Amino acid sequence: MSQVNAEELKDAIAQYIDPYLQQNLYDIGAVKSVEEIDGKVSVRIELPYASLGLHGAVQQLLSTQIEYLDGVASVDVQVGQRVLAHEAQNNLPSLSNVKNIIAVASGKGGVGKSTSAVNLALALAQEGASVGILDADIYGPSVGMMLGIAEDARPETYEDKMFVPIEAHGIQSMSMAYLVTDKTPVVWRGPMVSGALMQLLTQTRWNDLDYLIIDMPPGTGDIQLTLAQKVPVTGSIVVTTPQDIALLDCKKGIEMFRKVNIPVFGVIENMSMHICSACGHHEPLFGEGGGRRIAEAYDTTVLGEMPLHQTIREHMDAGAPTVTAEPDSEVALLYKDIARKVGAEISKQTQDAKGNFPEIIVSTD
Description:
The protein is α/β, with parallel strands linked by helices. The protein has helices at residues 6-14, 52-67, 113-126, 143-146, 190-202, 222-230, 244-259, 290-297, 310-317, 322-325, 330-348; strands at 31-37, 40-47, 74-81, 98-105, 131-135, 157-158, 162-163, 166-168, 171-175, 209-215, 235-240, 264-269, 274-275, 282-283, 302-305. The chain folds into 2 domains: 6-81, Fe-S cluster assembly (FSCA) (GMP Synthetase, Chain A, domain 3), CATH 3.30.300.130; 89-352, Rossmann fold (3-Layer(aba) Sandwich), CATH 3.40.50.300. The protein contains 11 helices and 15 strands. α3 (113-126) crosses α11. The longest helix has 19 residues, at 330-348. The protein is globular. Residues 359-365 have low confidence and may be disordered.
């Protein structure tokens, strides 16, 4: 049997172009090892973002490319992933046990921001990442209800110092709703609200998160300013609808993040198209193309155009978001696509070396 040509083997692996990073596996640093012994080829791939849904395809395509090379007797391709910590705005120090923070915001209420935040968090988890979500809407928290967490649920404490996040659908969560009842309105001024956000964020014992989603309150007020000044945010997503008034506020949201040096990964356009539950007819009730126009004007991208569909609302009200209730539905697949896009964008940023090494404690005992 002829020997396997090393250059041909490398070229075969390099033929696969990552669909979200648009580079080959060598260029993105995903090829961790290539071994060939007596015609038996072993390849280990490690993608840099949450991408579990792609692993099978990568394995199959690489195996097919390699097995036809001269001298190859067998092929073993192992595909995994490793999410690293990346730098936040203004070199803010990373949060303990949290690699990357993603802020999901909107310029105004009622555009489906929390729905997007929850489904995005669940989609990232289904793509193999360790994920948490923080409900930063102190006045009107809704994440707990959307995750199906009981109204009387209260977080446990760790050493009487830290909250233990409540888990649901495979993700960790923390919300003001877990600390007050639904009949107890939070009547606080801005500084108290900002302080509460920082307490919820820093006094929660997050368990080794690849991504923490922060569901922001609508607008550009105190909490957003606190976030920009004190919280190490890797990047942001702005949610809108196609209506002109919503697009106007979307612009303000993008401008806000850019002024405080937080990257904007893109725009999610909700209610992009109404889908009739009876006949399946598609109709743009609120206009069309608004998200794309905003993306072009601000040199960003449309991460996804989500339909206006009755089942999305029903799933959220029932505490079983679409990504988990119907994981193979069109909506769930769109959210998984958004999750991969966001993860890929994060992987392009400068790594935070501090966030990728374990804490070393030197004891004199």
